[in-house]
Each structure stands twice: as structure tokens, then as C-alpha cells.
Amino acid sequence: MKKGASFFSFAQDVNLNEAMGKMKDVGYEGVELVTGENGELTMKTTDTQLATIKRMADDYGLEIHSVGTWLLWANNLVSPDEKEREFCRDIIRNQLDVAAALGADTILIVPGYCGTEFAENKPLVRYDDAYKRAKESISICAEHAEKVKVSIGLENVWNKFLLSPLEMRDLIDEVNSEYVGAYFDVGNIMYVGYPQHWIEILGKRIRKIHFCDYRVSQAGLGAFVDLMAGDVPFAQVMQSLRNIGYDDYITFEMLPNYEKFPYQSLISGMQSLETLMAL
């Protein structure tokens, strides 16, 4: 398994060159870039600019292994509004094109939400409607994923949707594309389940892994803590990953400290990853 770091740990307008340099100095092998409303990587980033970003990563010896997006919170893939759903599909197709240009083999998407605290003034979506719409949109986007040879990874997030590994598994199987799988986050799942169970049930459907930690005795975003400071059963997680034959990136993600020490978490994260991956 290889060690990566996610740009979800930084502000959208972070300096890519500076952040990649910090990642290289610490010893990460790969990076997960993220498209957003602003910054150097948006839906308007040109092919020439993407080539520059790719060279930047190559110069640091970093592999761009996945591409996420901030844009699927303000826009809901399972919205009752068809125009909004189509825009979400455009976001995903753009991610796929960006990933292909940068040499990444996977994108991370929020597979829609029934409700969320992360987007204002969004209507609640009934669970069965969300499932039907998610399957439809992901199936449509899978055609583009197959064309560009980049996988779509569905992340388990605080979206009040796909709350069991059986639902996640079944949705992926029903879409029935080798380019659709799971992007599993071991910390996000702690408020509804046990990561080792999800890993073994999803099995080969898992395309990538996020590592963060979560303290269950707390609540809300403040419960996300440094790796090994929370309650994620990492020894069992590592054993489950080995049981399913996972041998791809483990990507460190930490809630961003935008203002004070934005890169400090990279250091402690790397030290913890080295310890955990030796379990």
C-alpha cells in the first residue's frame, strides 16, 4: 500500500506548488487533488493549465492518484430538480476528464444526499427517491468513466444516504460497471457503523481509501481528531484491507486548519500512517 495526502485538507485556493512541495518534503507518494469554485483547479481549468499541474506533480515525484470535488455539496446529485442533477453529472464528467489529464485512475464523488448540514436551503430528498436518482445518474456518468478509463469512487459521507454497506454494495452492483466502486473513508463511517465490516463487505469494489480518525464520545465535526487519537479500530482496519487484497493508496485526510498551520497535519499524518501501515 502507498501513502497519499488529500487536498481536502486545505482551503480551495491553496497554492498547489507550495502544498505539493510540503507533501514531498514529508514523504508522501501521491496526492488527491480537488476541484472547486475557486483556486487553481476548477471546471474552467484549461488543458494547458492541467498539463502544468501534471508537470508540477511529476517534478516533485508525486503521483496524482485521485481527484475529488467540493462542488457536490452545493449541488445535489439526487435533487428533485432535473437541471441540478444534470449539472452534477457535468461536474462528475469534468472530474473524469481532469483525472484522465492528470494521470489519476479514480475520482471521488458525493453520491447525493437526503439531507445535509453542509449545504444551505436544500430540500430534503426521500430515501427511495435518492437511491433511484443516484443509480440513474451514476449509470449515466459510468459511460463517460468507461470512455476515459477512470473509476468513479462513491464516498461514504455525512449525507443521510447509503447508511449500510449492503446498500452501497447493491448500488454499485446494480450500476454494473467496472469503472464504478467505493471510495471508503474509515473515519466518516464511525457514527453509523464499523469500518472493518464495510471493508470486507465491499471487498474488491473499493477503489481508494481515506484515513481520518473520529472520537465517538464527541459529536459533529469537532469529533474528527488526529490519527490514532480517536476510536477507529485501525488494527482491524488494516487486517480487513489485507484480507480483501487491497494494495492501493491510503490517503490521509484531516479537517483543514486554514489560517494558522495549514501544513502541520501532514507531518503528524505521515508519522501515523507509517505506524498504522506496519500493523
DSSP E strands, number: 10
Structural class: alpha/beta
> What is the CATH superfamily?
Divalent-metal-dependent TIM barrel enzymes
Q: In terms of per-residue confidence, which ranges show pLDDT below 50 for 5 or more consecutive residues?
A: none
- Give the number of domains: 1
Number of helices: 9
In spatial order, strands of the major sheet run 1-2-3-4-5-6-7-10
Gap from first CA to last CA: 12 Å
Order of helices and strands: EHEHEHHEHEHEHEEEHEH
Examine the coordinates and then state which fold CATH places here, giving the name of the CATH topology.
TIM Barrel
State the helicity in percent bands: 40-55%
Radius of gyration: 17 Å
Percent range for β-strand residues: 15-25%
Q: Looking at the structure, what is the overall shape?
A: globular
The CATH architecture would be: Alpha-Beta Barrel
The major beta sheet can be summarized as: 8 strands, parallel, barrel
| Mean pLDDT figure | 96
Q: Can you identify the CATH class?
A: Alpha Beta
What does this structure look like?
- α4 (82-102) packs parallel to α5 (127-148) and α6 runs parallel beside α7 (195-202).
- Strands 1-2-3-4-5-6-7-10 form an 8-stranded parallel β-barrel, surrounded by 6 helices.
- The model has no long low-confidence stretch (mean pLDDT 96).
- It has a single domain, classed as TIM Barrel (Alpha-Beta Barrel).
- With 279 residues, the chain is α/β, with parallel strands linked by helices.
- The chain is 41% helix and 17% strand.
- The protein contains 9 helices and 10 strands.
- The chain has helices at residues 16-26, 47-60, 71-74, 82-102, 127-148, 165-175, 195-202, 234-243, 264-276; strands at 2-6, 30-35, 63-69, 106-109, 151-155, 180-185, 206-211, 213-214, 224-225, 249-252.
